[in-house]
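Q: What would this complex look like in 3D?
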Amino acid sequence: MKRLIGVVFLVIAAGVVALLASGFGRNPATVRDPLVGHPAPDFTLAAYDGTTVSLRALQGRPVVVNFWASWCADCKVEHRALLQAWRADRSHVVFLGIPYQDSRSGAAAFLRRYGGGWTQLRDPSQDTAINFGVWGVPETYFIDRHGVIRAKVTGPVTAATLQTDLREIAG
Amino acid sequence: MRRRLGWIAIAWLVAICALALAVYGSAPVHAGLDERTTAVASQLRCLVCQGESVADSPSGFAAGIRALIRRDLRAGETPAQIESFLVSRYGNRILMAPQSGGIGQIAWLAPPLLVLGGLGFVLTLIFDWRNRGRTPVLVADSYLERVRAELAEE
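A: Here is my prediction, written as structure tokens for the whole assembly.
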């Protein structure tokens, strides 16, 4: 009996230790996003230029949605790559920016300084950000012509990741 | 001694059950909106913080989630519906505690099973150790005869 209890105890302990040990080999930042492969949550938001943008109305065109903030260092890092991609692909890809927890003046000053002519949308309640599962900027979603999220980049996008993900949604 | 060990084992079980109840415990149905919001938020992890719940964190992320919880509760949604929506957006990592169904059951069952298993193992060792002194020693008759004969010679 004593031996049986000991064996059962050791088997359970070994299982738990193996489970915990398997976590050491994984990067905690690379969590699979639950929305990738699923339809993007619809939104209708007012833009800073006075227009209103509905995601559903854009179906049929690939869309890039970039959540960013003027106070975010990584957003400065990725901005040049975004700007280049927008200049190259704006004829067939819609680029949308959604400032996250940012002031209107802060966002406007950032865009004046670093450039960028794509539409910027207001999400003061953070509803759209929460609907997309945004928790830290920058986060960028690549939505295909059918409105399905094909990829998400958490952290700054690079020219290489933009090229790959844009090809996926525009191809 | 044996009775005392029994009481210790029962105390362990009661402590484990109390812990499980505390974790699973939900907000009172008739609590105010603030209390219900806090109760739901305390079950959610602030993803931009270190070990803080959405209820405790002063971050903008947590404030946004709290506002959503409050609005949805006011609209008549249940805490389970709100949690389910947030899990659909952020995954299970938004939950402070693992889900009680599916594979998440392992996380709930493993610790008490390990504690009970360890307790049983230690108790068995103690009983075995205590009984070792009382177990009669079996000696062959021929050996006893030889010992008696040697004692008689002395």
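A: To summarize the key features: Chain B has a mean pLDDT of 84. The radius of gyration of chain B is 29 Å.
Q: Very helpful, thank you.
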